[in-house]
Structures are given as C-alpha cells and as structure tokens.
Design brief:
By secondary structure, the chain is α+β, with helices and mostly antiparallel strands. 70% of the residues lie in helices and 17% in strands. The chain starts with a helix and ends with a helix.
Length: 142
C-alpha cells in the first residue's frame, strides 16, 4: 500500500474515533442537562409544598401512571445523597442540597461542552488534512 493511502486510512480512523467520542460526550451532556432540569423541578415542587400544605401532588406509580396525593409532612424530605444512600432533610436543606448539585452539574456541563468543542476542532483539522492529502494524491496521479 502506498504511503499516502496509509496516511488517509490513519486519518480516517482518527476522524471516526473522535466522532464516536464526541457522540458519547454529547449523550453525557444530554443526561446531565436532564438531571439538572429534574432537580430544578424538584426545587420548585418543594417550594410549592412548603407554601401550600393542602395542595395535592402527582405521585408517579410506574408505567407512566400517577395518582393525586397529599403530602402529610412536606417539611421532611428524603434525599438521595449518592450510592443509593437516602437521608432525611428539612425542606430548606433539601433545596440547598439540590441547588449545590445543580451548580456542580452546570460546571460539568461546561467541561463536557469544552471537550466536545475540542474534539470538533480536532475533527476539523483531520478533515482538512484528509482533503489536502487527497488533493495532493490526485495531482500526483493526474
């Protein structure tokens, strides 16, 4: 195999690898954003519960179904702090905990987005090198 063809194959391999990595990071970014949105919704719900103790809430019971329920003690919130460890916090403490998690998620989103941008930059460089190598190959043959 000629050296320029090997170079093209190697560059194409790297381009494919970077593309796959960018896709993985994009999915990770979507998951972080979804968790952030869920946390914001939970904060809003906890604030509403604290303000109006008689309001019913929709309680998911699985399979896309829900029941209306009244929260007997909206001041006691169970919070998953990681590794399936759940602790009881006050409504305010739970809100503060989630706000801190949201701040962490936003920082992670920035890092992941920067990584995606870096990968895309590398992909653009490789694509340019592929095109340059291909044009040079065509000129030398033509």
């Amino acid at each position: 195999m000629a050296e320029p063809e090997a170079d093209l194959q190697t560059l194409q391999y790297y381009l494919n690898e970077y593309s796959q990595q960018a896709e993985i990071f994009s999915r990770q970014l979507e998951m972080i954003e979804q968790k952030r949105i869920e946390s914001l919704a939970a904060i809003e719900t906890m604030k509403n519960l604290a303000g109006d103790r008689d309001s019913p809430v929709l309680l998911p019971i699985g399979g896309g179904t829900m029941v209306r329920a009244k929260v007997s003690d909206p001041e006691k919130i169970l919070v998953n702090i990681g590794s399936d460890v759940v602790i009881q916090r006050t409504n305010g403490e739970a809100i503060t905990f989630l706000q801190e998690k949201i701040t962490e998620m936003e920082a992670m989103e920035k890092k992941v987005a920067a990584t995606i941008d870096q990968l895309r930059g590398q992909m653009a460089e490789i694509a340019q090198r592929i095109e340059t190598t291909y044009v040079q190959q065509q000129r030398s043959q033509g």
